[in-house]
Amino acid sequence: MHLRSVEFQMPDRAEAVNFLVAPWGMTEVASQGPTTWLRGTAGQHYSVAITEGAERALLSATLTGTREEVEAVYERVRAAGLRHSEWIECFDEPGQSSGFHVAGLEGEPYRFVVEGDRAPDALPADRGCPIRIAHVVFNTSDREASTRVLTDVFGFRLSDRTAYMSFLRCDELHHVIAYADTKRPTLNHVAFEMQDTDAVLRGMGRLKDAGWGTVWGPGRHGPGDNVFAYFVGPFGACIEYTAEIQRVDEDYVTGTPDKWAFPTGRNDQWGIFSRDMDAMAASGATFPYHPLRAG
Ligand SMILES: [Fe+2]
Q: How far is the CA of 127 from the centre of ligand 1 (A)?
């Protein structure tokens, strides 16, 4: 299973698409009706969908796997009694995969789809362009319960726990979904994988030239060991350039909060960043999910 894409609803699609193409670095794939699809350089039909709608919302975080894997998750979702859609044979989008929507305990909008047979070729590597969606982080008021849905129903593994966050994986990446403690269930942020640290720093410069300051970064996280730089886009969502995410295997030992306690005044490995806590908190506290779509 892999994290594949995120789907947003935005009141101003053109503004969001224009930002994600330049300065952010995505490539526009197609538009149909109210929706525009964009991709990174990975061989995927798309990584981000923007659908014009009255209110901003995350419509879904989409995971992909073989038909056998996705059908097995569907059966466990039904058995667990989570809110979910019926099985949908053909999503009307590039790749036209089949699958289903399911809501996490606090409404986190997940979607599982079957990998298509004909993925497009990767685009040439480019330090200016994101490769793919790296991870999605949700805010939750009950981290333990939310995390258990992923491990017990979706088949994820818990990679690490800190005092405030839990990091979960479904492939070799240290995490593709994480949960952070807050009072309101909202989208915390979406991360885009860049080629390397140099690409993250070049991205920061490109955003700066376009008038978009970094709200947190640059730095290197503890869990996942990834380099990061966070921004709040014109659409209000917190988004991250990241690189060098740790790859782990079955033997990775789940870390506990005491393993990841930084010294006072630090919360990353480098200690050089500036951080606009107000901007991050405003984004994280207010970016909502869309109610579960029945398809
Ligand atoms: Fe992140």
A: 19
